[in-house]
Design brief:
This protein is α+β, with helices and mostly antiparallel strands. It is built from six helices and 13 strands. It binds a DNA duplex through loops.
DNA sequence: ATACTCCCCTGAGAGC
DNA sequence: TGCTCTCAGGGGAGTA
């Protein structure tokens, strides 16, 4: 389940291999992966597009193609592999880009949850998904007063609000738990009842957790691995996520697992106070 | 406007 | 062994 650190790791690997190359054509084997424009337009527009750069915005991988952006969201299990036209297509390879030199970039996604968007740079800023993404965690505009403006309208649990990509973008289920643990805030607290100190801690520890995870190359958990060198080690530094029944590293209390907004949520009931 | 529910999709793991 | 059931979850759509 790639979040910002994993997406950045994948994007960096792709960049090293693909900048300066060209998409010759593309084959789509599962139409729902392409969310914009139509599949036919997507196939037509991608032809002979040179890859200038590869970056990220939120959890999206951004292929900079001169006049267009190709955006890819890996969702739960999306991965890229390099193959050649001689390799038979595997069961879960749904999109195959033909590059030069007979090489192919294949998008593999067991759950078929991933999404791709091909959009001109001109219309991109006012179009989904760019138009609905909040601040990156490193943005200097991410301040207590910025969060306050959003949080004051939110009675939802802070865990759910951390996953709202229109406020801070890039946080997913694993890092949300870790951020709240370090902030000593219960995942169940309503966002509009947080103190200024709570909001400042969220910003501080969001940056701390995500930067540490990036340094570790991301988190490798459950099915999420990638042939393209994403074998992150941050799972070794997780304090609460996935630790149900284990002692809290801080106080020794049993880590609990609950559901918050339909998401599995791990926390220490002693360190992370409800008020 | 916010918040809630359902849905997408498949494989892993539990229970029998 | 092999079957059926439940769960995992980011985010979009539809509805209250």
């Amino acid at each position: 389940m790639p979040e910002k650190p994993e997406v950045m790791t994948v994007a960096r690997k792709l960049k090293n291999h693909l900048v300066g190359r060209e998409f010759k054509s593309v084959e789509i084997f599962h139409d729902n992966i392409v969310s914009y424009p139509t599949v036919e337009e997507f196939k037509e527009k991608i032809k002979n597009k040179k890859i200038i750069d590869i970056t990220t915005r939120g959890k999206w991988i951004v292929f900079d193609l001169e006049n267009d952006y190709l955006l890819v969201h890996l969702r739960m299990e999306g991965k890229f592999f390099y193959r050649t036209s001689k390799d038979i297509r595997e069961k879960h390879e749904h999109v195959i880009f033909t590059l030069d030199h007979g090489e192919e970039l294949r998008y593999h996604d067991v759950r078929k949850f991933g999404k791709m968007v091909l959009i001109s740079k001109k219309e991109a800023p006012d179009h989904k998904p760019f138009s609905e993404l909040g601040l990156e965690f490193w943005d200097s505009e991410l301040t207590d007063s910025y969060l306050k403006e959003y949080y004051k309208k939110k009675s939802l649990p802070i865990k759910s609000v951390l996953l709202d990509q229109s406020i801070i973008t890039g946080i997913g289920n694993i890092y949300a738990d870790e951020i709240l643990y370090r902030s000593h805030i219960s995942p169940l607290r309503s966002a509009n009842r947080l103190t200024k100190k709570n909001r400042s801690d969220i910003i501080l520890y969001t940056r701390e957790v995500l930067n540490e995870a990036i340094d570790a190359g991301g988190t490798t958990i459950r099915s999420y691995t990638s042939e393209e060198g994403v074998h992150g080690l941050f799972q070794q530094q997780l304090k609460v996520h996935g630790k149900k029944g284990e002692p809290c590293p801080n106080c020794g209390a049993n880590i609990l697992k609950i559901q918050v907004g339909g998401r599995g949520t791990y926390y220490c009931p002693k360190c992370q106070k409800t008020k």
